[in-house]
Amino acid sequence: MKKHRFFAAVHSIETGEEENLATFYIMNTTVNLNGWGVSDKALEEALPTILRKPIGCGPDYRIDAHYPDPIGVGRFVRSEKPDGYAMGTAEITDQKVWEHLVSGEWGPISVVIHSYRETCSKCLQDLTHEEDPFKHDCIADGEAYLLIESFVFERADFIDYPAVPQAGFINVAAAETQVPLELLARFYETQSHQASAVSWNETPTAPVDRSWDVDAAEAGIRSWAGGPDKESVDWAKYRTAFAWYDREDSENFNGYKLLHHDVVDGRPHVVWSGVVAAMQAILGARDGVDIPHGDRRPVYNHLVKEYGLFDKEPPEYHESQSKQDPAQGPGAQTGSNPEEKERKNQLENELQQRVTELEQQLKDERKARENVENQLTEIQAREHAELVEETLEARIEAGLVEDVEQERERLTAKTEEGLHELKQDSLKVAAKLKAREATPKAKYTGPSSELKTIIENTRQRLFGRRSE
Prior knowledge:
By secondary structure, this protein is an alpha+beta fold. The chain is built from twelve helices and 15 strands.
């Protein structure tokens, strides 16, 4: 049995009367950036195993990586498979995590699975017991991928940034109110670009003293991904060697930046000098790097994990002072269309206002709910205390109590059902005692006339005389 991870994200969240529910895009049947995928049949059979499985995060609410002993913050309660992909709904039991979800700070998750059968997608050779199935000829040559045909879900953990294009909030719901999807769609239509930090996947490391030649490394990665001609490049493979790419320019070499891998023994390896160079660029060295402001922190987080592979301490994050205006995307011009810019700003303001209103509504509803819960708790506590005293009184009347305070303490720990049973039993015992005390005792008044006649006849027969 082997363990694999698949990165996914929040689809929607909702607040019910008694629980906070978040729906996640769990996984699909396409090949992921790790070089493996699951069959549709395997996903169909495994989906029920997500139920009651935990969703968690790292110690101190960290979401920068998987941890061996994550904090449990919820469990999956529903699952569905619309068409080639899986969805799961989890009840979030940790209020702090729920607030992170509602605010949009958290979203992506990484699903951990245990596989039972693995094959080559091309030749169908069974690779289940191979120590490193990625060294199989078809997969190593890039002609196939590792196909998982049987697995179960183990858990899901929150991570710090999306690893698949589907990742991210689609809607935010508070009770029955949600941001109109039409407004969201219009907002995203106005974005001048779609850029992204490349999802992090653990890869082998080159010797720490390996020299770094970015041009030679890029040529090697290009060839490994099917090049050198871009028409034959597998862009999904090519992407794994970088820390950032532009989604709208994802099939051009100049749409990729911050390379830090090189091909060693026919397979990409992380090169320490390349990681350092990429980190220096994201933090502003040598005029920085021309990427959107919103992608800088996710790229930094990607590189931090590469530092971890070499057991190195990363520098602290700070805003880059690159020449590019952080608010603009790659290739943005200062003379952009004023009307388009104004429309975008208007939609952003509308969306922000709506989100603010929903957040306030959610806070108000949560506060009202807490007030009701507090009142209900007080009422229940008062009723319980009254029932304890009633039961105690019944048991005293029944003569079943030796130490009143000790009995009161014992009864306080009982449930309402248990108290009712004890009270009824005690009342029955007390009633019997009262009935016994109310029955008058019989008094001796001498023999009856009939008995007297029998006695005198017997006396006459035996002694020949009657009593005087």
